[in-house]
């Protein structure tokens, strides 16, 4: 038996980097280790891959694995080595809807699935794409995907209970009893009725997770809108802040004032909404932050001059019989996923069509 020398090394996977998950299959076949275990090492990196091997073999291994795109390091000792312990859930928001096909391809390459499967992940709201990964993996996702990447430790997040259907009286009463027993405030009149800790969310989901019309949403992954409730038309500080922070010119403030409350920002992260709300409050303005819960919408297109040309643009989305134009207008026959509707809207507007999104409440 060969004795250990001080030249022996430790090979550590620092990050999945630019590698494809297919490298997991190769490592699994080569090492005779479960592919799931290898993928766990990759997505939870940094992790030790080889312990106590000769320096020459360690260097060759490093060079070989780096050729696949993995980020590898060699350690003399694990005395000062800290494994990644905190794990995160990751979601994506595509700010430019025209990038949906490109981001689908990038995501498919990253997680090792088909483009269609990646697209289905992105069409969910919010679009959680992967869970239980390390910060190194989060950074790799950010470097490889042209979208806004959000991440959170699920045990530290807050969850919103979203009631899609408030007409089920029996279910509402069961939920109400559950929260009363847990001493958690519950407002059955609101779609977003309460905020739950990770532990309370798990307890709730174990009892009600199989019920239709209920969702538990990660607060960190939601988008938010900022509603301006009140401001002073004669206050110069208000005018300056609304222009510099929101981009509202003074010329239209009088019209906005007549239509209060008004939406200042839409589809922004909670942190951004909170910063703006605080700025408004410090200057004496009142505002409200609300979660954006847009899931389905009807798409309406107006001023269609050439019906055949219009149908040609949407042939990949609908069969010809579903693209009948009446009075120079067309409305989607069924509700459309919000993310997909944003993509279709962007395409049509780029082609100079007038588009409306009519959300289902």
Keywords:
alpha+beta, four-stranded antiparallel sheet, three-stranded antiparallel sheet, 38% helix, 25% strand, disordered N terminus
Shape: globular
Unreliable residue stretches? 1-5
C-alpha Rg (nearest Å): 26 Å
| Beta strands, count | 16
Largest sheet: 4 strands, antiparallel
| Beta-strand content | 15-25%
Question: Can you write the helix and strand succession as a string?
Answer: EHHEHEEHHEHEEHEHEEHHEHEEHEEHE
Q: How many individual helices?
A: 13
End-to-end CA span:
71 Å
Structural class: alpha+beta
A few lines on this structure:
This protein has helices at 22-31, 35-43, 55-66, 100-111, 115-122, 135-144, 169-182, 198-208, 236-246, 253-258, 270-282, 307-313, 338-350, and strands at 9-15, 47-53, 71-75, 88-93, 127-133, 148-152, 159-163, 192-196, 214-218, 224-230, 262-268, 286-291, 296-302, 330-331, 336-337, 354-359.
Report on this structure.
- The chain has helices at residues 22-31, 35-43, 55-66, 100-111, 115-122, 135-144, 169-182, 198-208, 236-246, 253-258, 270-282, 307-313, 338-350; strands at residues 9-15, 47-53, 71-75, 88-93, 127-133, 148-152, 159-163, 192-196, 214-218, 224-230, 262-268, 286-291, 296-302, 330-331, 336-337, 354-359.
- By secondary structure, it is of the alpha+beta class.
- Strands 13, 14, 15 and 16 form a 4-stranded antiparallel β-sheet that branches.
- The longest helix has 14 residues, at 169-182.
């Amino acid at each position: 038996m060969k004795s250990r020398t001080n030249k022996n090394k430790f090979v550590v996977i620092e990050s999945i980097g630019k590698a494809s998950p297919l490298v997991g299959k190769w490592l699994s076949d080569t090492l005779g280790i479960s592919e799931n275990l290898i993928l766990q090492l990759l997505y939870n990196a940094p992790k030790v891959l080889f312990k106590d091997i000769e320096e020459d073999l360690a260097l060759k291994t490093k060079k070989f694995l780096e050729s696949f795109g993995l980020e590898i390091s060699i350690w003399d000792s694990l005395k000062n080595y800290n494994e990644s312990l905190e794990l995160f859930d990751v979601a994506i928001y595509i700010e430019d809807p025209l990038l949906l096909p490109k981001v689908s391809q990038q995501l498919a390459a990253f997680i090792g699935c088909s483009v269609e499967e990646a697209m289905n992940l992105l069409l969910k709201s919010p679009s959680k794409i992967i869970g239980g990964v390390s910060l190194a993996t989060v950074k790799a996702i950010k470097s490889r995907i042209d979208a806004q990447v959000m991440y959170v430790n699920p045990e530290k997040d807050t969850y919103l209970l979203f009631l899609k259907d408030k007409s089920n009286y029996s279910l509402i009463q069961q939920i109400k009893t559950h929260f009363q027993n847990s001493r958690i405030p519950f407002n059955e009149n609101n779609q977003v009725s309460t905020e739950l800790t990770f532990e309370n969310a798990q307890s709730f989901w174990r009892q009600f997770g199989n019920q239709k019309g209920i969702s538990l949403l990660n607060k960190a992954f939601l988008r938010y809108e900022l509603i301006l409730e009140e401001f002073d038309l004669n206050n110069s500080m208000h005018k300056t802040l609304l222009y510099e922070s929101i981009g509202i010119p003074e010329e239209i403030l009088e019209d906005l004032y007549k239509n209060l409350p008004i939406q200042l920002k839409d589809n922004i992260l909670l942190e951004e909404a909170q910063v703006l709300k605080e700025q408004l409050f410090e200057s004496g303005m009142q505002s409200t932050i609300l979660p954006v819960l847009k899931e389905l919408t009807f798409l309406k297109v107006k001023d269609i001059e050439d019906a055949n040309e219009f149908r040609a643009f949407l042939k990949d989305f609908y069969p010809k019989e579903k693209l009948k134009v009446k009075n120079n207008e067309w409305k989607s026959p069924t509700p459309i996923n919000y993310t997909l509707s944003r993509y279709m809207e962007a395409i049509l507007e780029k082609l100079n069509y007038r588009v409306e999104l009519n959300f289902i409440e």
